[in-house]
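Researcher: Here's a chain I'd like modeled. Treat it as a single chain, no partners, no ligands.
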Amino acid sequence: MNISAQALGGNSAQRRSVRVVTPPLWVHIADSHGRLLNVSATGALVQIQRDLSAPQVWPLVIDDDTGPVELHVRVVRSRPVSIQLPHAAWRRQEFGVAVAFTVLHDRGRALIEKLCRSKFSQFE
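Model: Modeled as a single isolated chain. Structure tokens:
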């Protein structure tokens, strides 16, 4: 069954789904690798090595312990994040990319529900 993100979260201009900090799961989007930072019923924040422009649409693959799960997302915003390792003289730039789910198939919805736990249907 396909479920639109709007059906999951209602009108995002009125209510915002609660975000949940996630384990550092690996993600793949737009030929770039990174990690999942947080997730809600309607979207996620990922940190990747590439800047993405809104409102591009991409497949997002999350590597869960059960295997890779593909979701369809729309880029909402992308902001540079400076990374500096402890005791290192150099810095690396990555990007915090906020995405909205456009369609969640059964497996994608199950993963998002698992990551959100009891917060899946809650709003801020």
